[in-house]
């Protein structure tokens, strides 16, 4: 088993002998075998044990057991105690999710503090099969079907080739002691239901279900890689980023007509397959102005492009005083200056010059609101800001980022678009108030 273990590490380029490792050891048979294999293979590692305080005295006994084991093989051991139930209640998550978040947050901290290269966990082939079955039951794409990754950034899993039976056999042959977590035998958790009920039924159909799953997993991994290559090629040709916004060609999307590709493109922004299907439907029947939302982003089906942008939440309002030279708010800076040279004025989208004597300080910057109206430069009458934005062909999702500079009750500048005609510089202007907006990098 040691040879298979080392070959798997080499074949998947998981780590080097010179790398210092952090090994998660619960005290169960899987992690005890992992630590033993690493020790026999002469890797340098530190053991990390989490006490989640979920099983009363048994949790403390696990901690003592792991400490004694670490001492017996002359390896450093670090332990941490968590109030998992309180964390789960405060975060509104399950006990399983709470334990996962707590341990990986702590592991990341240890990696940084101790200068360790990789976190090593004892996930094995049966775990990967159970993950695939679990994801299949919930609904998933290729990435969910291919099971657990062998390597994910600084997390490595050198036992993913081994079945549970192989691990138990090695433990018996090497007289390795371990502690059983009785919760693993309960069907209270979904993964346990799969392990205790579903997998045994599958073995009746195929006694070698774990080993045949390996070949299925390899094919799915290659399919996932092919899909990612297709996604990346598509992005290189038809994806444009402007600032924080992303533009995707509608014509090309209609030609390709593959929801699974669109899902790959939208997933980093929090969109699901079902949402991607709805977006594709809107693209195909040409519904300009249609909006779709994830927790962090929104997608707008515009005239020629699919536009992905961050959601803007909350009311933005702050003041600019006449003595100010620099005003910073969020990611924006306003540079302000006073001049009497009417021959030198700003006329760009984000740099304007206004008639100082017409301004009523303090000026205010706020998000536009329904009912807002102003007199666009060059016009005699007022126009609703909503109509102005339609004329300017501002996409729906970008309208959320339109801000106005107000003077008293008037809009003096629709920032980034147009000043109000009443505040323009004329031959009778005496002083000029210059405003330059700069987006902070």
TrEMBL record:
Its EC number is 6.3.4.19. This is tRNA(Ile)-lysidine synthase. The keyword Nucleotide-binding applies. HAMAP family: tRNA_Ile_lys_synt (MF_01161). SMART domains: TilS_C (SM00977). Residues 363-435 form the Lysidine-tRNA(Ile) synthetase C-terminal domain. GO terms for cellular component: cytoplasm. The N-terminal region contains the highly conserved SGGXDS motif, predicted to be a P-loop motif involved in ATP binding. Transmembrane segments: none annotated. PANTHER family: TRNA(ILE)-LYSIDINE SYNTHASE-RELATED (PTHR43033:SF1). One of its GO terms (molecular function) is ATP binding. InterPro entries: Lysidine-tRNA-synth_C, Rossmann-like_a/b/a_fold, TilS/TtcA_N, tRNA_Ile_lys_synt, tRNA_Ile_lys_synt_N. The gene is tilS. GO terms for biological process: tRNA modification. Its main location: cytoplasm. It is found in: Cytoplasm. Keywords: ATP-binding, Cytoplasm, Ligase, Nucleotide-binding, tRNA processing. Belongs to the tRNA(Ile)-lysidine synthase family. It catalyses: cytidine(34) in tRNA(Ile2) + L-lysine + ATP = lysidine(34) in tRNA(Ile2) + AMP + diphosphate + H(+). It comes from Fulvivirga sediminis. Ligates lysine onto the cytidine present at position 34 of the AUA codon-specific tRNA(Ile) that contains the anticodon CAU, in an ATP-dependent manner. Cytidine is converted to lysidine, thus changing the amino acid specificity of the tRNA from methionine to isoleucine. ATP binds at residues 26-31.
